[in-house]
Amino acid sequence: MSPTTLPTVSSLAEASFVPPADSVRWRRYAGRDVIPLWLADLDFPAPPAVIAALEARIANGLFGYGEPTDALIEALVTYCAREYGWAIEPDWLVWLPGLVPALYAACRAIEGEVVTATPVYPPFLKAPCRERRVLRTLPLVRDEAGWGWDFAAADALMRGARLFLLCHPHNPVGRAWREDELWQLAALAEKHDLIVCSDEIHCDLTLTGRHRPFATLAPEIARRTITLMAPSKTFNLAGLSCAYAIIPEAALRQAFVAALAGRVPEPNVLGLVACEAALREGGAWRAQLIETLRHHALRVEEAVNALPGLFTTRVEASFLAWIDCRDLGLEHPAAFFEAAGVGLADGAAFGPGQAFAQFVRLNFGTRRELLDEALARLAAAISRL
Question: What does the alpha-carbon distance between residue 33 and residue 325 come to, in Å, rounded to a whole number?
């Protein structure tokens, strides 16, 4: 089926698409001719089953305090078994309003220095510092095969640290880490006795292959791992505030829950409803979304790498492309492209200092005609340099 005629990702083909008035991503450039591809949410409506479940819950009219139902927990257990071959126990679950507060909670719960790899989603950098933890950053390396790890440097950097914040799949470089890479990270975690907080929010948006949760490598790895997941990126539900941590080790789970207490609210009741519907009935919609994203990822890769001064690697997971602008010789490429009518995420936020100020991140989870227009604007801007 053509990516421009997907019946369940309907806004992709609708010229009449109108973004919601409360959208953070679209409001940034309100009143300006700037295509907003900076924030990581989709321009596609949630699955019909999710919308129907929300409508039914709203019709009830009662919106008091809520908690996960047995049906939701059963849906999640079944989903993990089906999608990842992971047999989880209900008491391993900690329900959350989002994954960003979970990063802060992990830093509060685990005393000691923190390691993460850059470039990385900005809260990985902010959470340790705001929780008064020393942060050590490990630069990812890029070669002809794409972005990867310097394991010797990781070994040296992890010595004496206590917590490793892993982004898996990785935002912004778009890598879905291979199993051999995960095993090498697991060996280092064991060698240095690290707790691993693995943010796997993009796990259901792998464009090739099947996601392998870090905790599933071995029972001894699971005992030192906090796995963070949510339906928000996959099913476009971020505004409904529902996520979850999977923590098999009881003592680690208790420390994490204690770090949440009094600081982090419960998940949204509508988010819980949407989560269950997405896990139970969103499979066909997700498959078509992934097919759409595959087409868009290739379109971005081909278009960007055809432009002088820009380079990007193959996106293996997510709907985000990390673009190297260093050869353009611009001090602020994000500002340059914004002036040309394309709003991209500034790479400076994804690492320490100005390490990635010459990079930008592009969200291609939008309608094809809008994406094509954005890429045309990038090309026109570069042609004027």
Answer: 22
CATH number of the domain at 10-47+283-383, please?
3.90.1150.10
Give the residue from 61, 37, 320, 25 showing the smallest Cα distance to 171.
320
Exposure of 7 in the CB half-sphere (CA atoms within 13 A):
2
Nearest to 175 by CA among 40, 315, 295, 323: 315
Straight-line distance from the first to the last Cα atom of the chain, in angstroms, rounded to the nearest whole number = 39
H-type alpha helices, the chain: 24-27, 48-60, 70-84, 99-109, 123-130, 151-158, 179-191, 219-222, 232-235, 250-260, 269-281, 283-305, 333-339, 368-383
Dihedrals phi, psi of 311, to nearest 5 degrees: -155, 140
Whole-prediction pTM:
0.95
Which residue is associated with the tokens 């009518």?
Answer: 341
Residue-by-residue pLDDT tens, the chain, 385 positions = 344 344 344 444 454 578 899 999 999 999 999 999 999 999 999 999 999 999 999 999 999 999 999 999 999 999 999 999 999 999 999 999 999 999 999 999 999 999 999 999 999 999 999 999 999 999 999 998 899 999 999 999 999 999 999 999 999 999 999 999 999 999 999 999 999 999 999 999 999 899 999 999 999 999 999 999 999 999 999 999 999 999 999 999 999 999 999 999 999 999 999 999 999 999 999 999 999 999 999 999 999 999 999 999 999 999 999 999 999 999 999 999 999 999 999 999 999 999 999 999 999 999 999 999 999 999 999 999 9
Domain extents in the chain = 10-47+283-383, 52-281
Query: Do the Cβ atoms of 113 and 133 come closer than 8 Å?
Result: yes
Nearest-angstrom CA–CA distance, 182 and 179: 5
Fold (topology level) of 52-281: Aspartate Aminotransferase; domain 2 (3.40.640)
Type of residue found at 65: Y
33: which residues sit within 8 A by CB, 6+ positions away?
Answer: 341
CA distance to 114, 235, 266, 270, 369, per residue, from 240 (Å)? 30, 11, 12, 6, 28
Beta-carbon contacts of 215 under 8 Å, excluding residues fewer than 6 positions away, are 86, 198, 221, 222, 225, 227, 246, 248
Give DSSP secondary structure letters for 228-257.
EE-SHHHHT-GGG--EEEE--SHHHHHHHH
